[in-house]
Amino acid sequence: MKFMILLQCLLMSAFSAAASAQTVTSDGYARDLSTDVVKNPFGLCWRSGQWTEAKAMAECDPDFVPKPVKKAEPAPVRTAPPVAAEPRLVEAPKPQPAPIVAAPIAAAPVVPVKRTQSITLGADASFDTGKADLKSEGQAKLGELAAKLRDVTFDSITVVGHTDNVGTDVANQRLSLRRANAVKGYLATHGIAADKIKTTGRGKTSPVADNKTAPGRARNRRVEVEIKGTRTL
Known about the structure:
Layout: H1 2-19, E1 22-23, E2 36-37, E3 112-122, H2 123-126, H3 136-148, E4 152-161, H4 169-188, E5 197-201, H5 214-220, E6 222-232
Parallel strand pairs: 4-5
Antiparallel strand pairs: 1-2, 3-6, 4-6
């Protein structure tokens, strides 16, 4: 009776093991007809007499099976930081030449020119002998002179009277000054400022010719006019 109970238990174990058997190709474990490993009711594999550690299966004897080597994950690829592009040298635009503008032509500056002009009035042509009244010929000559001096800025006008050696020194001195004043009066009436005119008489002290001859004495009886001023050209 005990034998029957044990047989039934073995059979039940066999059936249970067959139900949980796994196909195996190693001869280190007991196999059923389907070549599946046979396990006991506790889920343990039945080892055969040929079992060695080298034939151990991971499912039955995981302690004897070398652990699978984990594949090393590839190291992250370090990418080089992006290289900054070299700055491009942009050529600055060439400055354009400024338009040529013709400068206005300045008028030539007016240059004042200082001049000195002299005129001599002969006594025979301008005055009667021994007199200081201007004759028509002398007036015409002075009129032409005054017309030429209208654009002149005067610095000074000097009128000097002279005589020959006939008569006394005092008389000739007075006569020469009267003739110089007669010329001054005429010029003043023709637009020349009287305060610019200076008169003097030298009598017979400054002859220009020989008083021994009539022509020489005639040359010595004269009135000289000297004008200094500035004329704008």
